[in-house]
Amino acid sequence: MKIVFSLIILSIPLTSHAVECQWWQTKYSATVVNKHPKKGKVREHPRREYCRDRWPNANLYVKQFKDDPILGWSHKGEVFKKWSREETQLILEILPTLPSWIEVQNYNFRRAKDSMYKGNPAASELTNGSIILYDLFFKEKNKKSIIVHESSHHLYKKVAPKDIADFLSMSGWSVEVAADGKVYESPPKKLIQSDSASEKDEDFANHVESYYQNPKSYKTSYPKLYDFFKQRYPL
To answer: Which domain holds residue 174?
Structure first.
């Protein structure tokens, strides 16, 4: 009787630890070392590769960049465009350096060619939590302050009514009665920026930007408002 033995060789692929990193990440390798808690023996495992963000929280922030236009955007005629890698990188470098109270993690960032308002580098859209950056933004030196300004429009809608009333009073807004008996709000006689007279939230954003950009000068000009912001938005 002939007995035939068959040898079956199982091919088991070796586990690969190679990883592909995104352009906003850096690849690095490290050896994992485990020490037995009782025997004190040290065991080294093969080196593994990992991805590390080149800028803090870049892997989270990069998801906030949107290429599609905002549906129902009120600024008719403005043309949205796609983000370039260079532009995205610039913003990824800026975002981690901004104060936490502006809540940049809550917004999405859009690109558009030119604003319908001459000389305007950025805009805010509150419904979708958007900040729109125009071509002009990338030519400005005070990019951080511009983002703080636009974020302040979003912050304004979260401010408590009493705090809003306090801000408006210290800024110089007043309630007046016209000859025909109609009641209306009058903007400050001393404006921090000319467009502060247009809307209360614009005045608020202008003040926050000035407070952030040059706190010493702002404290001299607006000591009460400086204390107001310092308590709520520490630098």
So the answer is: 159-235
Query: Long-range CB contacts (< 8 A, 24+ apart) of 52-56?
Result: 52/25, 52/26, 52/27, 52/28, 53/24, 53/25, 53/26, 54/24, 54/25, 54/26, 54/92, 55/24, 55/92, 55/93, 55/95, 55/96, 56/96
DSSP 8-state class, residue 81: E
Does residue 8 belong to any structural domain of this protein?
no
Q: Rounded to a whole number, what is the largest CA-CA distance in the chain?
A: 122
How many whole angstroms separate alpha carbon 63 and alpha carbon 228? Answer: 34
- Please check whether residues 221 and 176 belong to one and the same domain: yes
Q: What is the b/e burial string over 85-99, where b = at least 16 CB atoms within 10 angstroms of the residue's CB?
A: eebbbebbebbeebe
Tell me, what amino acid is at 1?
M
- pLDDT (tens digit per residue) in 89-109: 999 999 999 999 999 999 999
18 in any annotated domain: no
Handedness of CA 134, 137, 143, 145 (dihedral sign): negative
In a domain, 164, yes or no: yes
How far is the C-alpha of 117 from the C-alpha of 103, rounded, in Å? 26
- Residue-wise pLDDT for 106-148, tens only, equals 999 999 999 999 999 999 999 999 999 999 999 999 999 999 9
Helix (H) or strand (E) holding 198: none
Q: Is the separation of the CB atoms in 78 and 112 below 8 Å?
A: yes
- Judge if 55 and 138 occupy the same domain: yes
Pick the more confident residue, 11 or 26.
Answer: 26
Contacts for 37 with CB less than 8 Å, ≥ 6 apart: none
